[in-house]
Design a protein that fits this description.
single chain, 134 residues, mainly alpha, 5 helices
């Protein structure tokens, strides 16, 4: 009886884990975040064409690859990891993204993109300067 309960508990944990991974909306794995962002852009920016979507996706994938190349190895954050340098790099990445999107989107679409980005910033959890940098 005890073995049956253990096996049932193990199966239930596996099922919950699989369900949780499914609910992540594609953020896991290579390209998942970019794909989800493009889907969200389709929902929030009017009249995106397939050509625009393809251009945005290609640009975001190139940026993600660049970030992967510049990311510190696991465990290096405390060993010479320069948080300020990473912040500057993220700001430059955002600036480059905005400039590229200006060339891809119409003025009306870019305005909608900026409004959507501002709404996302307002709704983002604020972590502040907590001890431990998290």
């Amino acid at each position: 009886m005890r073995k049956i309960a253990l096996v049932a508990g193990f199966i239930m944990m596996l099922a919950m884990s699989a369900e949780a991974q499914e609910r992540r909306g594609g953020f896991g794995g290579p390209g998942g975040y970019q794909q989800r962002m493009v889907e969200m852009m389709k929902e929030n920016i009017p009249d995106l064409t397939q050509a625009q979507t393809d251009s945005i996706t290609a640009f975001m994938n190139r940026q993600a690859e660049e970030m992967r190349r510049n990311r510190p190895e696991p465990g290096q954050q405390g060993q010479g990891f320069d948080r300020e340098k990473m912040r500057e790099m993220m700001e430059q990445r955002q600036k480059a993204q905005n400039e590229k999107f200006k060339t891809i989107l119409t003025e009306e679409q870019y305005s909608a993109y900026q409004k959507w980005q501002e709404e996302m910033r307002k709704n983002r959890p604020q972590f502040g300067n907590r001890p431990g940098g998290h």
